[in-house]
Amino acid sequence: MWTTVALLVFVAVSGVTAATTGVTFTNNAYLDEAMNVFLQWRRDETTVTMQLEVQTRGMVAIGFSPNGNMPGSDIFAGYVGDDGQPYFHDFYAEAQEHPVYDGDSNQNYYDVLATENDTHTIVCFTRRIVLCDSNDKTVNNGTNRVIWAWHADDPTDERSLLYHGATNRGSRSLQILYPRTEQALPDDVQTLELLNVNYSVPGNRHTTYLCRGIKIPDLGGKKHLIRWEPVIQPGNEGAVHHFVLYTCGQEPADLDAHDGQEGICYSNMPDEWYHCTITLLAWAIGGTGFNLPQNAGISIGDTNDPKFLMLETHYDNPDMRDDIVDSSGLRLYLTSTLRTNEVGVLQVAVEVRQSQKIPPGSASHTTVAHCYSECLQQGMEDVSASALNVFAAFPHAHLAGRTVNIRHVRGANELQEIFKDEFYDFNYQETVPLEETRQVLPGDSILMECTYDTTDRSDVTYGGLATANEMCIAWLLYYPKMALTRCESWPMSDWYLTSLSATSTEYSADKQDFIATAPANLVNLTADEILSSGVTWTDELRAAFQRGETQAARFELCADNSNNIVHGDGTRPAPPVIEFPWVSADECSGSDAAAANIAANLLMLVMAYIIMKVM
Ligand SMILES: *[C@@H]1O[C@H](CO)[C@@H](O)[C@H](O)[C@H]1NC(C)=O
Ligand SMILES: *[C@@H]1O[C@H](CO)[C@@H](O)[C@H](O)[C@H]1NC(C)=O
Ligand SMILES: *[C@@H]1O[C@H](CO)[C@@H](O)[C@H](O)[C@H]1NC(C)=O
Ligand SMILES: *[C@@H]1O[C@H](CO)[C@@H](O)[C@H](O)[C@H]1NC(C)=O
């Protein structure tokens, strides 16, 4: 862009540290497991400032990638030369090959500072969050795939780089635009660790969901939970995939007997735990600790608060190792200095069952969980809340999930999404604080949409617990707390039966699903039975399944903490059509961006003219 035509290069006399740059970084992460590549950053209104520290005296590079691979990436790379001068430039990669210098008029990294000592190269730069040039990447609100590379040597030419080889490179998903500033904890803070105990992760399956019963110890009265963080047993970082901490609609009678018991979730766990379905909080791999807003806390230890929790730990063991023994878990921070507001968790989802059906061979199929306005409104009325203040969201899908979007509708108008991640990564999920607290008013509805890519699959992907199955769940943290916890709905399966050529259907209490009653060859079959007998997937059939997400009548679960129905009879007509969908402003289509492009083009013309004159 015009404002960054010149690459400003400052030579740092001593090492570049936060002290010499004057920058206070708010976030940091190692980008590699060997801990050779360390990134610190801070986000300001329109810019991001990053400091990269790599254990090499050669070339270093960091890039913003669409998917973790090189093609399509925006790369900042360079080295500190033997002359002590830094040589850093903006490149882009069109393919898995040497990146291309992005042109003199297109250098988008500025305020570059760089230095090296005997072992490390440190580089610090600032860039705009939004860049309006096809060779440059905008830093996303959701997940960003950051790529990195380094080489032991300096290149001989500042615009050509050295091949990093197979090992000195990698990619890491990062949440960049949400600085998690540490919060001063009150003096009376106490911690409660909820840990597994030497659990031997099964070596005969890829995915294990371990459920552990935890009796909450006597906390000496009501407390507010104000922060949580993971406690991962060193060495098991790759296997411990997520934790979900559930409360139970109905708690086991003998808490002591259930304390410390464990079992495979929804398989050989105690029957009483099937009542433990309300997510209190969740952490997943890649996430860090979470601080609640200063004016809100999650009540714990009070008379009516949960006495029992179920900790679900998802272990991912693709290599089927049989030597993983784990004692990881969660650490909760509690305070007696109660905050003004009680926090609730609202689950907007489709049922985690076969009712969720994603066609195979689809580049983009969107599951829609519609939280109806009538359900939300009843929930608010029941506690006389005039609005819900949503401050964090935890979207959850599995491996086929590509984008997640929590939409917010008011009457005929859709408002800006509550949270959207266009680069969803199953391996990087966490409860994300929203940029601004969002108010949900009576009459509003919320949609959780998950878009999946199943081009590499030949069978239907069903909703389910295994990572090969799918989920579409948004947990919203908000205040003031309602009794309502589950605002869920999913299409009735007669839609799918009709799509699969049934000409008439009825509900079968026997099969607890719709069955076809005609034509003769489909009689008594459910949609799932027809699907499992093998169908030919056409674009038409996929499109029919997609239409069902918004046009089919629905089953609804609008329920409280004890799974008591808050509103409705469990069925709903198809959700209302959103008359005026939200259209996000394109920050690059404005006159400024156009002017910048014209300016850049003009500059190139002028330069071409000068070059021609010189020649
Ligand atoms: C070189 O820089 C790295 C990274 O800042 C630092 O950890 C290391 O101590 C430095 N080495 C010397 C000899 O100063
Ligand atoms: C991030 O989200 C905020 C508010 O939700 C929005 O204003 C902003 O434009 C988004 N930024 C990007 C880079 O998408
Ligand atoms: C877990 O195993 C380790 C190593 O065998 C042992 O030292 C520790 O006491 C065990 N912890 C518990 C709580 O049993
Ligand atoms: C369908 O099921 C009903 C009730 O179980 C049974 O009476 C009927 O014979 C079945 N029809 C066919 C064609 O299988």
Give me the side-by-side strand order of the main sheet.
32-29-35-26-36-39-40
Please estimate the helix content.
10-25%
Bound molecules: 2-acetamido-2-deoxy-beta-D-glucopyranose
The beta-strand count equals 40
Uncertain residue segments:
1-19, 593-615
Task: Give the percentage of residues in beta strands.
Answer: 35-45%
Largest sheet descriptor = 7 strands, mixed
Shape: globular
Radius of gyration: 27 Å
H/I helix tally: 7
Structural class: mainly beta
Mean pLDDT: 88
Quote the distance from N terminus to C terminus: 28 Å
Commentary on this structure:
The strands form 9 sheets. Strands 32-29-35-26-36-39-40 form a 7-stranded mixed β-sheet, with helices on one face. Strands 1-9-10-4-3-2 form a 6-stranded mixed β-sheet, with no helix packed on it. It is mostly beta strands. It contains 7 helices and 40 strands. It binds 2-acetamido-2-deoxy-beta-D-glucopyranose (NAG) (4 copies). Residues 523-524 line the site of one 2-acetamido-2-deoxy-beta-D-glucopyranose (NAG).
How is the topology of this model organized?
Blueprint: E1 9-11, H1 18-21, E2 27-30, E3 37-43, E4 47-54, E5 60-65, E6 74-80, E7 86-92, E8 100-101, E9 110-116, E10 121-128, E11 143-150, E12 169-175, E13 190-195, E14 199-200, E15 207-215, E16 223-231, E17 240-247, H2 255-258, E18 262-264, E19 278-284, E20 290-291, E21 296-300, E22 308-316, E23 325-326, E24 329-335, E25 341-342, E26 344-349, E27 357-358, E28 365-371, H3 373-382, E29 388-396, E30 401-410, E31 413-421, E32 432-440, E33 444-452, E34 461-462, E35 473-479, E36 484-491, H4 494-499, E37 504-508, E38 513-518, H5 527-532, H6 539-551, E39 554-560, E40 571-572, H7 591-614
Parallel strand pairs: 1-9, 21-25, 26-36
Antiparallel strand pairs: 2-3, 3-4, 4-10, 5-6, 5-11, 6-7, 7-8, 9-10, 11-12, 13-24, 14-23, 15-18, 15-22, 16-20, 16-21, 16-24, 17-19, 17-22, 26-35, 27-34, 28-33, 29-32, 29-35, 30-31, 30-33, 36-39, 37-38, 39-40
This protein binds 2-acetamido-2-deoxy-beta-D-glucopyranose (NAG) (4 copies).
One 2-acetamido-2-deoxy-beta-D-glucopyranose is lined by residues 197-198.
